[in-house]
């Protein structure tokens, strides 16, 4: 039937207009350009939040879970920070490239500005991007960053429109914030000097002046002293720019919220890399003593507060419905990571890795299987869960697909588009998974193979590395805690998985 538009009564026209507006709006909400927020915790284990069974109450993170989709089999690519972050941003396994291990605080930028990052790709889709928080991917040219001038290349040369970062980690100098190309609050009359070789001038060190420390080191962390805490690396100057550890979470939450507010009228991508719960664990007095598990637990409360701040900002601006929030961690949990902070003594019954074996630094699943929660009310059913196998290296291709972008030739070679699994439309993610902690493992179906490697099986009683001189094969379905090495009983399977691993290595 042909409708003569002039003959349709006014009230009917209004109804049609409203219907059209709503249906097209619903359409836009679903398919086009949700805001994207990745909240990337540091050293948070699979069992460290209450939504995943932990003893520490994390109501804000749990709310992401109850309003979104929780994964039981989500993985960082590596069991330490720098390589996991490298892979997340580039869609390429860090172990393919030399020099992507835990970076010192004066490392040059280890990502290639000529190659596209996830921020570049989302930029092409019209997103404004920011990184707020722990960077730990190096800054500056090969000769090192000019700490007192323009610090570049860095995030702004990698597709981010705004950055407010800790250059490396909380336990590494320089202990300053860098906003875009500059150290924040730097007095030019008091320039920053950084060295990873020797103390600068007569600077006191944790080694020589332990009486100046309020947290003792258990290993390392005895060089520069900033805010009464020994760090890795030496540093002088920049007095007015030094961070206060107790305030880091609040500063980052504020910068993240500001960025969201400033970009509320267009699609944005926020990569919020919290410092919590990495060492040194120096939570704000608001959280001190509140978890009952010592400062490690208190830092988890602080992390949860950060998540709450971001959620509140999104809610108050009416953005929550069409914002895709991804919450995860860069590697598994660690207790003593170099400071005497009673993480072990005050643990109680809490199991940081939940039912998994190993943690940070480990090839056992505790090293890389981490909480992964995705919330996007416009498209994902509330309170759902998924066993789909997901690697963070897949965020690149998945978010590119979601926003209608095709990674260019040479971009993100290891990233698979698993957006349907990430948004709960499909129950299956990737079919195999590579994890990295010095050496590599491959998981396929119920089976996991860890290649033989030289080196210690453990760094200490609480730090199993998962390494062995012989091949290891575990059935994760029957033995999630990887207690029985079945390699000898299944030589064919070992051969097949080893060959598959070699194939991926040679890509
Ligand atoms: C180790 C540090 C540890 C932590 C880690 C990096 C010592 C003894 N240990 O070398 O404290 O900083 O590097 O952690 O110094 S990560 O999460 O950033 O990868
Ligand atoms: Ca980490």
TrEMBL record:
GO molecular function per UniProt: hydrolase activity
PANTHER family: N-ACETYLGALACTOSAMINE-6-O-SULFATASE (PTHR43751:SF6), SULFATASE (PTHR43751)
Family annotation (InterPro entries): Alkaline_phosphatase_core_sf, GAG_Ulvan_Degrading_Sulfatases, Sulfatase_CS, Sulfatase_N
Segments passing through the bilayer: none
UniProt family annotation: Belongs to the sulfatase family.
Signal peptide: 1-26
Xref: Gene3D superfamilies: 3.30.1120.10, Alkaline Phosphatase, subunit A
Keyword Nucleus included in the entry's annotation: no
Protein name (record): Sulfatase
Origin superkingdom: Bacteria
Residues covered by the Sulfatase N-terminal domain: 34-404
Entry keyword set: Hydrolase, Signal
């Amino acid at each position: 039937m042909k409708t003569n538009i002039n003959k349709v009564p006014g009230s009917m026209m209004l109804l049609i207009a409203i219907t059209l507006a709503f249906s097209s709006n619903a359409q836009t909400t679903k398919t086009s350009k949700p805001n994207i927020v990745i909240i990337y915790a540091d050293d948070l284990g699979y069992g460290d939040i209450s939504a995943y069974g932990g003893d520490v109450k994390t109501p804000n993170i749990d709310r992401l879970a109850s309003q979104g989709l929780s994964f039981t089999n989500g993985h960082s690519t590596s069991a330490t920070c720098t390589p996991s972050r490298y892979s997340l941003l580039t869609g390429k396994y860090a172990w393919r490239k030399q020099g992507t291990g835990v970076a010192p605080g004066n490392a040059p930028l280890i990502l290639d500005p000529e190659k596209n990052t996830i921020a570049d790709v989302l930029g092409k889709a019209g997103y404004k991007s920011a990184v707020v928080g722990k960077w730990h991917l190096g800054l500056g040219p090969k000769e090192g960053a000019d700490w007192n001038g323009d610090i570049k290349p860095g995030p702004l040369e990698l597709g981010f429109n705004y950055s407010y970062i800790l250059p490396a980690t909380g336990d590494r100098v320089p202990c300053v914030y860098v906003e875009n190309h500059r150290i924040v609050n730097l007095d030019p009359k008091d320039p920053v000097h950084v060295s990873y070789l020797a103390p600068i001038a007569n600077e006191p060190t944790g080694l020589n002046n332990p009486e100046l420390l309020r947290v003792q080191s258990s290993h390392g962390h005895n060089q520069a002293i900033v805010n009464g805490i020994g760090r890795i690396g030496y540093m002088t100057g920049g007095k007015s720019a030094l961070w206060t550890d107790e305030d880091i979470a609040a500063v980052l939450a504020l910068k993240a919220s500001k960025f969201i507010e400033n970009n509320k009228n267009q699609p944005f991508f926020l990569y919020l890399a919290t410092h919590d719960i990495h060492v040194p664990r120096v939570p704000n007095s608001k959280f001190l003593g509140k978890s009952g598990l010592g400062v490690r637990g208190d830092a988890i409360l602080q992390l949860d507060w950060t998540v709450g701040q971001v959620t509140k900002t999104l809610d108050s601006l009416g953005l929550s419905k069409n914002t895709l929030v991804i919450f995860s961690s860069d590697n598994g949990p660690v207790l003593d990571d170099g400071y005497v902070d009673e993480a072990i003594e005050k643990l109680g019954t809490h199991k940081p890795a939940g039912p998994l074996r190993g943690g940070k630094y480990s090839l056992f699943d505790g090293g890389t299987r981490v909480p992964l929660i995705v919330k996007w009310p416009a498209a994902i059913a509330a309170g759902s869960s998924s066993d789909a196998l997901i690697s963070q290296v897949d965020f690149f291709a998945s978010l590119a697909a979601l926003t209608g972008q095709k990674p260019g030739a040479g971009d993100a070679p290891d990233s698979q588009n698993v957006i349907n699994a990430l948004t709960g439309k499909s129950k299956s993610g990737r079919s195999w998974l590579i994890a990295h902690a010095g050496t590599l493992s491959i998981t396929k179906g119920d089976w996991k193979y860890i290649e033989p490697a030289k080196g210690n099986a453990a760094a200490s009683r609480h730090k199993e590395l998962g390494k062995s001189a012989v091949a290891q094969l575990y059935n994760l379905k029957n033995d999630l805690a990887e207690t029985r090495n079945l390699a000898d009983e299944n030589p064919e399977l070992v051969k097949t998985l080893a060959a598959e691993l070699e194939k991926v290595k040679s890509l």
